[in-house]
Structure formats: structure tokens, C-alpha cells
Write a sequence for this structure.
């Protein structure tokens, strides 16, 4: 964040009216500052490098470079910017791809102003907007779809356990599984009779051991490595 403690935000969308709307909402808050705008993914990558925003609101379908590839480029560059993917549908495959690419959250474009502001604050704080039930449903939909489309021989072969998982303690593994269920820190604390501070400590250690950016990446990881498998297809 800036020296004044304000959260620096970059707006990325090829529609000027949408950028204007988001700017009006965000700049109405004392702790938020829109430091720049970009109309395509390539410009977004350059702006992140130059402006060093805390949070990027990233559209998906844009010319030159789409939001997914821009998100991936920003993530692998080592930037500390947190990315929120803007999508039209809550079960959009682009939202799933955005989370895989390194985004910390996704929001619908018609999000309520108060929810947009809250999401920016939460992501900037280093947490992630899991939107627990929706994100779980999103992951289950696309992880299940990938499994269904896999060749029969591959599907019949048990997935190899990621060696990084061996670094987790049994308690940390439980925490990761609970996170993948979409439980909040408070819900995890209640389930395991722990304090929220203790749960936060476990979450930080899990992220460090697995080399993950945030909570959402931990949930994606849990599904992709087979630690957690999609549940009821009618979920």
C-alpha cells in the first residue's frame, strides 16, 4: 500500500464506461485510490510494472492479450499485486481459468458497490475472496468436467500425491481440506475447537509450505492435486 495507507487499484477493462463506473465507486472511499486504467491485457502488464498497484480489477475478454494471460504474466513476474477477475457468470470457465492463473478472487460485473469495495479491501489485506460456496461450486464444476473428459486409462490411474503435501502436518492437512470445503476461518475454528488466530497461523504455514500466494490458490491446489475430490454432481 502507499505511504498514506491507501489501497492502490488498477482498472483493466476494454469498456470505458465500466472503468468509469468502477472508478466512481472506488474513489468514493477514503482508503482507496485508482492509480491507473488499462484497456487490454498487454497494457495491464505494463501498468502493473510501472504503477505497482496493490489490487488489479481484471476483465477477461479483451483485445491484444486477454485477462487470463495477463493475470498469468503478472503472477509469474513476481508482482505483489493481487488480481480480481471480473466475469459475467458465477460458473464461467474464465473465472476458473483466472483462479488457476493466479487470481485471488473473482467477482460478477454487476456486483453491488459495497461488495466491490469490500473485495478490494480483503484482497489487499493479503486474504482472498473465496466466496466459499460459489468458489467451491466453480471448482467442482470444472475439476469434475476435466476428470470426465480425461482418457479412460488416465482416469483409472491414481493421481500421484504431490511431494509438497508431505511437508504438511496432519492438522495442516485437515485445515487445507476444510478450506477446500469453503469454510471460513471462523467455521474452521468452530469445527476443530481452535481460536481464529490459531487457524490463521495454520493457513499461513500451509501457504508457505506449498509455495502458494493466498487462500484461493490453496483451494485450487487441493482440488487439482486430488486431495479433495468433487462431491455430489447435483451440488
Amino acid at each position: 500500500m502507499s505511504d498514506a495507507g491507501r489501497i492502490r487499484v488498477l482498472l483493466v477493462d476494454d469498456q470505458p464506461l465500466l472503468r468509469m463506473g468502477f472508478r466512481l465507486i472506488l474513489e468514493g472511499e477514503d482508503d482507496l485510490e485508482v492509480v491507473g486504467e488499462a484497456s487490454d491485457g498487454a497494457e495491464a502488464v505494463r501498468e502493473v510494472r510501472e504503477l505497482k498497484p496493490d489490487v488489479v480489477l481484471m476483465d477477461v475478454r479483451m483485445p491484444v492479450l486477454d485477462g487470463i494471460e495477463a493475470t498469468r504474466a503478472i503472477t509469474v513476474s513476481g508482482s505483489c499485486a493481487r488480481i480480481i477477475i471480473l466475469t459475467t457468470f458465477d460458473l464461467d470457465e474464465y473465472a476458473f481459468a483466472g483462479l488457476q492463473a493466479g487470481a485471488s478472487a473473482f467477482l460478477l460485473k454487476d456486483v453491488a458497490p459495497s461488495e466491490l469495495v469490500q473485495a478490494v479491501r480483503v484482497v489487499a489485506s493479503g486474504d482472498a475472496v473465496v466466496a466459499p460456496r460459489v468458489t467451491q461450486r466453480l471448482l467442482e464444476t470444472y475439476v469434475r468436467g476435466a476428470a470426465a473428459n480425461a482418457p479412460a486409462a488416465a482416469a483409472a490411474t491414481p493421481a500421484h500425491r504431490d511431494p509438497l503435501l508431505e511437508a504438511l502436518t496432519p492438522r495442516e492437512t485437515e485445515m487445507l481440506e476444510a478450506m477446500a470445503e469453503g469454510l471460513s476461518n471462523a467455521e474452521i475454528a468452530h469445527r476443530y475447537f481452535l481460536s481464529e488466530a490459531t487457524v490463521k497461523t495454520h493457513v499461513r504455514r500451509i501457504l508457505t509450505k506449498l509455495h502458494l500466494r493466498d487462500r484461493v490458490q490453496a483451494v485450487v491446489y487441493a482440488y487439482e492435486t486430488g486431495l479433495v475430490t468433487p462431491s455430489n454432481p447435483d451440488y
